[in-house]
Design goal:
The structure holds two protein chains of two kinds. By secondary structure, chain A is α+β, with helices and mostly antiparallel strands. Chain A has helices at residues 3-13, 15-34, 41-49, 70-88, 93-118, 161-166, 201-205, 365-393, and strands spanning 53-57, 64-68, 120-127, 131-147, 155-160, 172-173, 181-188, 191-195, 218-222, 238-245, 248-256, 267-271, 274-300, 307-318, 323-330, 335-337, 340-348, 352-359. Chain A has three domains: 3-119 and 364-393, no CATH class; 121-126 and 288-351, no CATH class; 135-285, no CATH class. Helices cover 32% and strands 38% of the residues of chain A. In chain A, strands 4, 5, 12, 13, 14 and 15 form a six-stranded antiparallel beta sheet that branches. In chain A, strands 3-18-17-16 form a four-stranded antiparallel beta sheet, with no helix packed on it. A four-stranded antiparallel beta sheet of chain A has the order 6-7-10-11, with no helix packed on it. In chain A, helix 4 packs antiparallel against helix 5 (93-118). The radius of gyration of chain A is 27 Å and the shape is globular. Chain B is mainly alpha-helical. Chain B folds into three domains: 1-23 and 258-321 and 351-366, no CATH class; 34-242, no CATH class; 380-557, no CATH class. The interface between A and B is large, with 67 and 67 residues.
Amino acid sequence: MNKGMKKILAPVASLRLTVLLFALAMVLILVGTVAQKYEGNWAVVDQYFHSLWLWMPVGFADLRVPFVGGYSLCILMLVNLLAAHAVRFKLSWKRAGIIITHVGLIVLLAGELVTGLFAVEWNMTIDEGRSANYAQDIRVSELAIVDPSPQGHDDVLTVPGSMLARHTNGGTINEPQLPFDIQVLRWMPNSTLTGRGMADPMLKQNTPEVTEGFGTMALASSLPPATGVDGGQVDAPSAYLRFSRDGETLGIWMVSLHGIAFDDPRQPVTVGDKTYLIELRFRRDYKPYTLHLIDFKHDKFVGTQIPKNFSSEVRLVDPTHNEDRTVLIYMNHPLRYRGETFYQSGYSGDTRTILQVVRNPGWLMPYIACSLVSLGLSVHFGVMLRKFVSRTRR
Amino acid sequence: MNKLATLIHAAAILLSLAVLAMPLMPKHEQGVYDLDTLGSLPVSAGGRTKPLDTVARNSLLIVSDRQTVKIDGIRRPAIRWLIDVMTRPNDANVYEVFRIDHPDVKSLIEANQGDQKRFSFNHIQRFAQELNVQFQQVEAIKPIDRDAYQKHLAELRDHVTTYSLLFTQQAPYTVPPLTAEEQWRPLSAEIHAPHGGHEAHGEPSDAAKRLSNIFLAYQNQDPDHFNHEVADYATMLDQRIPDITRKARFEVFFNKLQPFYQSTVLYVLAFLLVCASLLTAGFKGSGLPKGLGRAAVSVLTLAFCLSTFGLSARVYMQGYAPVTNLYSSAVFIGWFCVAMGLFLEWLFRNGMGTALSALIGFVTMIIAHNLADGDTMNMMQAVLDSNFWLSTHVITVTIGYSATFLAGFIGITYILMGVYTRGLTPDRRKTLEKMMYGVIAFALLFSFIGTVLGGIWADQSWGRFWGWDPKENGAVLIVLMNALILHARWGGMIKARGVAILAVFGNIITVWSWFGTNMLGVGLHSYGFMDSAVFWILVFVGSQLAVMSAGMIPVSRWRSFVS
């Protein structure tokens, strides 16, 4: 490398910058950890780690300062590292370990970047004896409007929960594809339901008058969003909606993710002579195959409530691939199928299994990175230790 | 002159062997009842098979914060208390075992006058009505929102529950599975307990009948019959479930030996010896410092062997990796710091490694003792169950914690010795710097590998390599801290003093990721937490900041540097 280049790269390649970036990363991670006491893990990850910059709270009042996000730090570290090696590159045993380690680190950072950008995590909930042909994204909700009239299949239109949230406080959604206009009277990002009989009178007073569906029996009330420290709890939104057609009100409904507590979570909405079924649910991703839960098992340690193990025996049916087989999914033994991996992640009651469905094109990268860094550090540490011991003992 | 050195060395070894042998001596007067055999009978509690002796010790420890009980003015072993509770509750109910500390809880049972700390079941029973009302009120409040009074009250309620499960014979599960279809079950499920509890169903099994005979013999104060029945039953179990009885007997031996308690005593002894050796450095000709120094290393090595035995024994009894909860992480961190300290002593032979590892060994044992809550070998949730990646992850990451701590303590030594004494000679300065550098490099290696292994385990278990979960973040903070120190040193930004100050800061970071994330009350990774710990953590963090500020004093004002 010529001298001019080196001169330009020198400040970018400096160890001072490295130390500064480490310090910034430590601050970011520390604040991003404490933030999980108040916000959901995913929200924090998006805001702090999968971002270019953010407004960081400083701890008193509501004061916030701009701060570098995870992506920016990641990129800066990569630039610093590459520049450093460009400027100081020298092949020797002493440097070999360091070079391997740093290559591993690049793969690791790139892996996190790929995961952040492309990985998807879904959830599949199946009851014993039932089948599922879709996975759901438990971070995103949607209002499904189902037209069951066609023979052999349903026509489904969906309105994203985020759209409902944007139209809250009386905004109206009128899209030509929708069979009716939707006025969002209230949107609750996380909620709980109470029977009308048991509800607090204040709550009753502040709730829109529901005219149709299960909202006539139960009231939804707002909850603070689940935080990262709650450990894997999921937000369950609810909403109060008024539907109208050509300016004429059809009624007011309450829709909720807690709708599954009722016999049929889908509520009928009649427009003219046509009846639609509506449901607020997690966003679905339909698969070309079906999983049928044959048996869900979970054991506890004798005389305790501590789960010992859990497993799901499922039948995988995929007509497009001519596949029909039985598989057992249990802790640390996921099913890998069509680029997706199905993990036993949880259960509810004795007969419902919850599988985590993950597609991550970068899943192998941490493994490669880990091997490289471990190799590099071991080489370097070994070389150093030998020198150190022989020098000290002499 | 070397005679003196040898003499001191030999004396120290003899003294430590005496410490070692002490717990194995019969402490209590052997009564007419063969309680040793009774104590070694296997039972199941908390999902784990263990000897009755362990159940007795843990239950008594939970209720009374002690492992022995005073009966008629004489200290008796826990097993004596347990068998009394299970078979002669009328006697046991007057033993003063329920420890109550909170003044408001004490006043509920009209005991706020005087300094009595432990109360009998009968005493508490007298106020059952009012207590039940209070218990119900506490029930409605989530554990995390309870104030000190409510927490103590809830504790008392749990203790009463533990106690009543014992005397109704619903816990532990005493009846063993002798055939493949059977499972551990409580005696009360088969034979109606003499003092209330569940109604039993069906024809009792042979094992249940025998157990019941043992208890009846004790209840009827018939030692000959009791001893005969216990011996018979133990022989039968030895034939039917030999693996389980062997393990149970081993655990009784482990309980008696108390290797961690003994190594704590030895750490103190080693520390005193090495300090004496450093203080007598002026009398080189007498062989005194040499003898004391050698003695310290031998005592420390013995303590280390004991700890190693203790850890291996736990792995054998529990069937998991050595780190499963906060208690065992403290034990492991101490153990590994001592290992590294001994290695440093072998390298440098200047007493520093010995002094530091004796000190850290002692402190971590005290921490472990305070983290222990009943059975420290509880079962792991399915998610955390044994798995290659998990086992290697916890071990390597805990080694990373240990090394970061050790580097921090070397940093403290460097700063305090330099600022307040003349002891930080150019020679010591150099060795301490080398030690810090080597240990930090080692810490970086292990904390990094440990963190990544944790990611691999998470990927294997639920398909997410990294989730920015608070505990993961804690681990990566340690990696970054160590990387920062090393890069700053390579870049010439800091020298020995700067490394020392930052290494002390590393202590704060390590404590944060060890305990701080548990304080946030986090999901999967939190192993449960005690409030008083928060206070001590703050004290620790404060002290570390104080040491760091001392380190910031310009070198020209350090006593070691003033000529």
